[in-house]
Predict the structure of DOMON domain-containing protein.
Amino acid sequence: MAAAARRSCTNNMPISLPFIIASMTCLLFLFPGIDAQSCASYTFSNNQAYASCASLPRLGATLHYNYTAETNTVSVAFRAPLSKAGWVAWGLNPNGTGMVGSQAVVAFQHSNGSLVAYPTLLDSYAPSMAPAEPEELGFPVSDVAAEHIGGKEMVVYATVALPAGKGSKFNHVWQQGSSVVDDVPAAHPTSGDNILSTGTVDFSE
Ligand SMILES: *[C@@H]1O[C@H](CO)[C@@H](O)[C@H](O)[C@H]1NC(C)=O
Ligand SMILES: *[C@@H]1O[C@H](CO)[C@@H](O)[C@H](O)[C@H]1NC(C)=O
Ligand SMILES: *[C@@H]1O[C@H](CO)[C@@H](O)[C@H](O)[C@H]1NC(C)=O
């Protein structure tokens, strides 16, 4: 009875379940940085959906993104663990690798109680972390916002107009620091994962 049911099932279905599982396993091996399961399973508070996401290899961070090739823009949601104190940041380095030369979005809780999030220029190893004026930006960033979830995770949202002529693959950096002094993010640790949190992201994947 069971065997007959199974046979009729496989006869009627040109693509078998083992084939689907094998295909999905292949995809996971092809794109090791892309964790389709957590993309699909993470629910943002206002039900935003992002087409892709990557579990970043350091600091427990995740980048969710929607890339639009026609307009060369990407909408991102960067998530990183954070208790009440401290800050998180994510940035692109269009002309090099690592921190210096990156343009980032940073988020933290201001002393007045509000969450603040804005673009900033990482122009040295001791950047000001001050908000960048629009005319200072190497590429426009809009819709910057932050959300602190459950007292343990910060999410930074942004829409980035990607630098032209560079395709969809970029060097990126991300960071998390444990203190904010006078409403300015203070230096992050300069060892371990905090100096290894760099990589590449291809927004078309
Ligand atoms: C991402 O793209 C999908 C599909 O086009 C769309 O439904 C969704 O609203 C987009 N999300 C954001 C945050 O733009
Ligand atoms: C807190 O300070 C930030 C940055 O100056 C400002 O944008 C925000 O409106 C302030 N929030 C409150 C509640 O005063
Ligand atoms: C990257 O280099 C290009 C060409 O030299 C320059 O126009 C652009 O301003 C640089 N971008 C940033 C963000 O520094």
Remarks:
- The mean pLDDT is 84.
- The pocket of 2-acetamido-2-deoxy-beta-D-glucopyranose (ligand 1) is lined by residues 48-51, 66, 75 (CB under 6 Å).
- Residues 35-202 form a domain with the Immunoglobulin-like fold (CATH 2.60.40.1210).
- The chain is about 15% helix and 40% strand.
